[in-house]
Amino acid sequence: MTVVVGWTPDARGHAALVRGAREARLRSEELLVVNATTGTAAVDDRYAGADDVADVRTLLALLDVEAEVRQPVVRDVPDALLDVADEVDASMLVIGIRHRSPVGKFLLGSTAQRILLDARCPVLAVKAGEPPGR
């Protein structure tokens, strides 16, 4: 089976990547890193450049985890992550989420909410700065 990580080149994405790599290693499973974009914004800061992808590959090598990195241009990012998870029969989907204010906790981000509600596999939602033992 495979651990799938929805990765973005920011603190949330880094937290998801590190946790996903650790889960893949613990489970002796493959790791698939997905960095998707709709391509609709002139500059999508959640879509990684070549340097960001190289940094991810270096980090994964340091963590002793082999991984495939995919960067699809899609119509809908949450659907793309869910489709990839289904395609590879993922054992787990790991996503990064941002800290929410008390009011923000009432309304989870739409991307995270759709993934949590629609995924057929377990979803691990990780906040940036979460202690490693959690």
UniProtKB/TrEMBL annotation:
Residues 2-127 form the UspA domain. This is Universal stress protein. InterPro entries: Rossmann-like_a/b/a_fold, Universal_stress_UspA, UspA. Belongs to the universal stress protein A family. It holds the Pfam family Usp. SUPFAM superfamilies: Adenine nucleotide alpha hydrolases-like.
